[in-house]
From TrEMBL:
GO biological process: nervous system development
Domain of life of the source: Eukaryota
Domain Alpha-macroglobulin receptor-binding: residue ranges: 1198-1260
Domain Alpha-2-macroglobulin: 581-670
Species in which this protein is naturally found: Seriola lalandi dorsalis
Compartments it resides in: Secreted
Official protein name in the record: Alpha-2-macroglobulin-like
Major location (coarse): secreted
Every Alpha-2-macroglobulin bait region domain range: 266-416
One Pfam entry name: MG4
Statement: the UniProt record of this protein carries the keyword Disulfide bond: yes
Gene Ontology molecular function terms on file: serine-type endopeptidase inhibitor activity
GO CC annotations, alphabetized: extracellular space
Keywords attached to this entry: Disulfide bond, Glycoprotein, Protease inhibitor, Secreted, Serine protease inhibitor, Signal
């Protein structure tokens, strides 16, 4: 990415030739790496029985040392909000604690939990903590948060690994799990198991909170209810509304007998834990085979098995078992699982046999397998801690001949924004299918109404039904209704309980693991139509809905990027290398399966997080993450903002840390430089004693004088001295007596940013096309602020498409400006759709803008259906903006939901303002200058509204439209001296289909056009010529729309239009927009219409950019990348450049230049003055900014005015100040952006306006 890349979220996509695609997003933004992280430690759960709980907040630098500072923590239990509940609701229960960290960097507080209404039910089942630590000396504040759950469940018992059905004669096995309120296992505690009325057992939990059981099923009949409880007897307390009591939750499980016609069964036995992936495994199965089901003299019965993983059969086999006919055969068989790694994450095993009688006997089980990858990758540093700038060895082991990607990044970056770590678990989570279960509806064996026509009535209604004969199996009988019972049955609404889902037959065994069987064997349990099906109404009541108590260390977006130093035996260590990403390499592993990579540790004192993944012929592998701490016991760290403005004064803070066991005398100095000036702060000392585990912060007042990256050099020296530090003589480190840090600070230019773009639409189909561009700087500009880049696109709409969210270099805070984020999406989507280039990704992005723009615009809507710049804070709606919104909402309907009433209400409101002569009266404040003056404000406005209605539904016979057209024709018959109105009318009559008026107006406009160098446009005589005239863009765009919105006219075909397009393309700003709202919207609409009319999929083009300074850069544009934005930085500013295109397709090239200019000394329409007052006697310094804005132009009052205040580096707007601004009646809106405040005013009179702003010092 070039340095000028716009801030925001970017998406990078990778695809394969099979059409597989994956995307990943990343942000480009200005940030300062956090110095440390704040962790909130809470109990994993707080129970209803707890009287006290301990809150602990810790600050740690990334290199592991404690942060010393003050702590503020707010601990809350929030009330549940019922928005439909109007009676008095509970308030949040919060308490604030002010603490100080100890030498371990932690602060603890014992909280009285009786203050938080633990027995009331109208509060959330959680506690939230928001904490912040302010580092002593620097004032850096970082935040952390935490949450823990609240539970009234003292014990929760659940059944684990229990089947849904038992097999008579085979022990019923399972486990009972007991957890406490924190969801952690309860160890060595009795749990009471009851099986029906006759069986019970007392179990004891193991170290995992589990207790296994095995129950004899030989005497079980039909269904059995199991219950497990942590209490021997139930204790029922009286219910009190809204009062919670301690709960001891038991588990219930309902099992039915597995169906087997012959009472032959097969049971796969459970394994403990997960199957290891490092070696082959075996699973066991017990069987009972009734001998009378075997053939006479049969001695062997074959059992078959299938092993499935990730949705496919990976192993299968046969296991012969010796049997004896005529007697009951009981025994056990084993199945080997091979290449277990390939079975992760689950081995789904089914074992079955088919008896000579046709009955199938089977069982299935899911066996979890440890998550392993075939390519075993490991990573290790030669030591866990190194000095900065010291050499270290990174050892990598993987499958021989693997190619590995190795990375190591500063832990501070991960604290700023945690990344998606590449782990074995993450790799397996990306599998499209982990295991199969059940059938899709297409292959489900549905047997509707197997007992029809015998309905099952509800129990409370007794009906006498005539006997109904059993239906023939092959026929589906018609229902027979008993006449006498018909009315009663209608009231009873006969119940059919549906198919058997109790998983108690062989069919369900195969269905459970997703294997579809085609067989004539006996696999389904027959339906008993006399059974009312009550058993099927049982629910397994394992109480697994207990809360999952958890305490999060919700890391603030914070953590340490503290600078580090390296102890060498030299007297002075100079540290200059502070990367955020240290290692980002591709490494090849040789035949030995290992490789050592030698690296130099960066100068940052932090923890480096390293990881690797590898690919080879055996597959993919990923290493566990490893860390390396770069640390030295005596070092200096700088606290810097991300950037400052040249000439601004800021405070540079340097903190010296001493982690030696002895005291030292430290002298700290800031080096002189030509790039900045500095002075000592008042009363500051720069030589102090510093004992073990202590730190001290030193400050200088610095003023940058140079632009760009400025190096700040600070040295901390341990002095040899006889002066006592405390009660001991100051010592000097054996190594690294002087630690010097050189950090880079970005210094930005003062003044007002300006941008100039030079565009070239080059169509080389008839030979090479080129354009020469001179980059010239004005006489007055800020030296060093100029920068330039060249970009190439293969599509006329590509630049606007890339910058849909920032088409204009202006704020988007009013109803009109918001539409610039809305309307262009419609034109671009229509264009891409008509040319077949619309991808799902582009549509999703544009749709997001449409949806947010639509919702935002509704906030500017009045109750009568109209819209205005600031909504209901304006006296009335505005006719022009209402029509603009109406047509835009209509155009968005194919892509998002738009409430039809919003369009209908707007149209009705506009119609109410139609005068008898057909013209529409202007209502509300009109910010669009093009509709003022000329023939009549109302004529231009009427033409615009007519155009909007015709674009909405193309109904020229509508009475309102007809009356408007009558008004406009009368205006044309009069004196047309306004070029803007003429151009707008030409488009209006083109949409209305009035070819006579269209031809007359376009001919008139043709005579007034200006041509130069193959371009054509329309000038305004009164234009200022100081920059791009937005009305000239709009006029030219309306003419282009008129030409493209009707039948082709002789002498005004696409060749004529191409000159207009070439001129419009040259006026685009670097973001694809133009100079203001309306010209951007109309021009993009016209360009999209032209692009669709001239689109071609043929050919490719090569663009070459050269300069007198020797630049030679080549871009290639073809059908595959015509929407790709290609950009390169230019180093010669000012400079002479030539852009040449060779090929078949048109390309749009642009050279854009950015620079800053100082405030103009000459006359300005506004006079701005400001004063600052400082409040330094508070914990956080505050500035009060007074801004006085006065209008000194020719009018009495301006149109809408935006006051843009760029904040001083290191300061942010105080929230109370925001409320104060919004309460001012002259202020319509206030937007706060990164480093800026935008204040919107309806207008400014000569008397001026006075703005008061409070600024707080930022925590970073």
């Amino acid at each position: 990415m070039i340095p000028e890349a716009a801030q925001g979220t970017y998406i990078i996509s990778a695809s394969t030739d099979k059409g597989e695609q994956i995307s990943h997003s990343f942000d480009i933004k200005e940030y300062v790496l956090p110095k440390y992280e704040v962790k909130v430690h809470l109990p994993s759960v707080i129970t209803i029985l707890d009287q006290e709980a301990t809150l602990k907040i810790c600050g740690k630098y990334t290199y592991g040392k404690p942060v010393i500072g003050s702590v503020k923590a707010v601990f809350c239990r929030n009330a549940i909000r019922f928005y439909w509940y109007s009676l008095t609701q509970e308030n949040d229960l919060c308490k604030t604690y002010l603490l100080t960290t100890d030498k371990t960097g932690c602060a603890s507080q014992i909280m009285n939990m009786t203050e938080f209404s633990l027995n009331k039910s109208m509060y959330d089942d959680s506690f939230d903590v928001n904490a912040e630590i302010e580092e002593y000396g620097t004032g850096v504040v970082l935040k952390g948060s935490g949450r823990t759950s609240f539970s009234s469940h003292i014990r929760t018992v659940t059944f684990e690994d229990v089947p849904a059905a038992y097999k008579p004669g085979i022990p019923f096995e399972g486990k009972v799990k007991v957890v406490g309120p924190d969801n952690k296992p309860v160890v060595n505690e009795p749990v009471y198991l009851f099986a029906g009325e006759s069986q019970n057992a007392t179990l004891t939990t193991n170290s995992f909170g589990m207790a296994s059981f095995s129950l004899d099923t030989s005497l079980w009949k039909d269904s059995v209810n199991l219950k497990a409880s942590s209490k021997k007897t139930d204790e029922n307390e009286p219910y009190v509304p809204n009062v919670r009591r301690p709960e001891y939750r038991s588990a219930h499980h309902h099992v039915t007998a597995f169906y087997s016609k012959s009472s032959s069964f097969l049971k796969l036995m459970q394994v403990s834990g997960k199957i290891s992936c490092d070696e082959d495994a075996t699973v066991r199965a017990q069987y009972i085979i009734q001998g009378e089901e075997l053939n006479k003299g049969q001695e062997v019965l074959d059992f078959f098995y299938l092993v499935m993983s990730r949705g496919g059969i990976v192993q299968h086999g046969r296991v012969p078992v010796n049997v004896k006919a005529g007697s009951v055969n009981k025994g056990e068989l084993t199945i080997s699982l091979r290449q277990v790694t390939d079975l992760s994450p689950f081995a789904q095993v089914v074992v079955y046999t088919v008896m000579p009688s046709g009955e199938a006997v089977a069982d299935s089980q899911d066996f979890p397998v440890q998550l392993c990858l075939n390519n075993k990758v490991s990573l290790k540093f030669s030591s866990v801690q190194n000095l900065p700038a010291e050499k270290t060895t990174l050892s990598l082991q993987a499958q021989p001949r693997s190619i590995c990607s190795v990375r190591a990044i500063d832990q501070s970056v991960l604290l700023l924004r945690s990344e998606q770590e590449l782990t074995v678990d993450y790799v397996y989570s990306q599998l499209p299918l982990q295991k199969l279960s059940g059938y899709s509806y297409e292959v489900e064996d549905s047997e509707p109404y197997p007992c029809f026509p015998l309905p099952v009535p509800e129990p409370e209604i007794e009906l006498e039904l005539e006997p109904v004969p059993e239906p023939e199996p092959e026929l589906e009988p018609e229902p027979e209704i008993v006449p006498d019972a018909q009315a009663a049955r209608r009231a009873a609404r006969s119940i059919y309980f549906g198919p058997n889902n109790l998983k108690n037959d062989v069919y369900s065994i195969f269905k459970e693991i997703g294997i579809k069987i085609v067989t004539n064997s006996d696999v389904k349990k027959p339906y008993d139509c006399r059974d009312r099906g009550y058993d099927r109404l049982y629910y397994d009541m394992d109480r697994v809905d207990s809360p999952v108590p958890m305490a999060f260390n919700m890391m603030p977006q914070s953590s340490g990027g503290v600078l580090k130093g390296k102890d060498e035996e030299k007297k002075e260590i100079v540290r200059t290398f502070f990367p955020e990403t240290w290692i980002w390499d591709l490494v090849t592993v040789g035949d030995s399966g290992s490789v050592d990579v030698e690296k130099k540790v960066p100068d940052t004192i932090t923890k480096w997080a390293a990881g690797a993944f590898c690919v080879s012929s055996v597959g993919f592998g990923v290493s566990p993450n490893v860390g390396l701490i770069a640390f030295q016991p005596f070092f200096v760290s700088l606290t810097l903002p991300y950037s400052v403005i040249r000439g601004e004064v800021f405070t540079l803070k340097a903190t010296v840390f001493n982690y030696l066991s002895k005291c030292i005398m430290v002298k700290v100095t800031l080096a002189d430089s030509d790039s900045y000036t500095f002075r000592d702060c008042d009363g500051c000392q720069y030589s102090v004693c510093l004992c073990g585990e202590e730190s001290r912060t030193f400050s200088w007042i610095v003023t940058p004088t140079a632009l760009g990256k400025v190096d700040l050099k600070v040295s901390a020296e341990a002095l040899r001295t006889d002066v006592l530090c405390g009660n001991e003589v100051a010592t000097v480190p054996d190594m690294g007596q002087i630690d010097t840090v050189i950090r880079t600070l970005l210094v930005e230019a003062e003044g007002t940013p300006q941008m100039v773009s030079h565009n070239a639409l080059l169509c080389p189909s008839e030979g090479p096309a080129e354009k020469k561009i001179s980059l010239l700087l004005p006489e007055m500009f800020v030296v060093g602020s100029a920068r330039a880049s060249v970009s190439v696109l293969g599509d006329l709409m590509g630049r606007a498409m890339k910058n849909l969210d920032k088409l204009l270099a202006m704020p988007y805070g009013c109803g009109e400006q918001n539409m610039v984020l809305f309307a262009p999406n419609i034109f671009i989507l229509n264009y891409l759709k008509s040319t077949g280039q619309l991808t799902q990704e582009i549509q999703d992005r544009a749709t997001r803008f449409l949806e947010s723009g639509y919702q935002r615009e509704l906030t500017y809507k009045h109750d009568d259906g109209s819209y205005s710049a600031f909504g209901k804070s304006d006296v009335s709606g505005n006719t022009w903006l209402t029509s603009f919104v109406m047509k835009s909402f209509g155009g968005a309907r194919p892509y998002i939901f738009v409430n039809p009433s919003h369009i209908k209400d707007a149209r009705r409101w506009l119609s109410r303002h139609q005068r008898p002569d057909g013209c529409i009266r202007s209502v509300g404040k009109l910010f669009h200058n093009g509709m003022k003056g000329g023939v009549s404000d109302d004529v231009s406005l009427t033409a615009y509204i007519t155009t909007a209605m015709l674009e909405l539904d193309a109904n020229a016979t509508d009475p309102v439209v007809q009356n408007c057209l009558r008004c406009l024709k009368e205006a044309v018959a009069g004196q047309l001296d306004n070029l803007y109105t003429t151009a707008l009318l030409s488009y209006t009559f083109s949409l209305a289909g009035d070819e006579e008026m269209r031809s007359k107006l376009i001919t008139l406009l043709h005579r007034k056009s200006s041509t130069q160098g193959g371009t054509r446009h329309w000038d305004r005589a009164v234009a200022s010529r100081k920059g791009l005239d937005s009305l000239e863009v709009e006029i030219t765009s309306y003419v282009l729309l008129a030409l493209l919105s009707g039948p082709a006219m002789p002498e005004f075909g696409l060749d004529y239009s191409s000159g207009i397009v070439r001129w419009l393309a040259q006026q685009q700003n670097p973001y694809g927009g133009f100079s203001s709202t309306q010209d951007t919207v109309v021009a993009l609409q016209a360009l999209a219409k032209y692009g669709a009319a001239t689109y071609s999929v043929e050919g490719s083009t090569t663009v070459t950019v050269t300069s007198l300074g020797g630049l030679n850069k080549e871009f290639t544009v073809d059908q595959s990348n015509r929407l790709l934005y290609q950009e390169e930085k230019l180093s010669e500013v000012p400079g002479e450049y030539t852009i040449q295109a060779q090929g078949q397709s048109c390309v749009l090239a642009q050279i854009s230049m950015h620079y800053n200019v100082p405030p103009p000394p000459d006359f300005s329409a506004f006079n701005i003055s400001s004063n600052i007052m400082a409040k330094c006697n508070t914990s956080r310094p505050q500035l009060i900014l007074f801004v006085d804005v006065r209008y000194q132009g020719r009018r009495e009052e301006t149109n809408m005015v935006i006051i843009n205040i760029k904040l001083l580096s290191g300061y942010i707007l105080d929230k109370s100040s925001l409320k104060l601004l919004k309460s001012d009646s002259s202020v319509k809106r206030v937007d706060v952006e990164e480093g800026f405040i935008n204040i919107y005013l309806d207008g400014v009179r000569r008397s001026g306006v006075f703005i008061l702003v409070f600024l707080n010092k930022s925590s970073l």
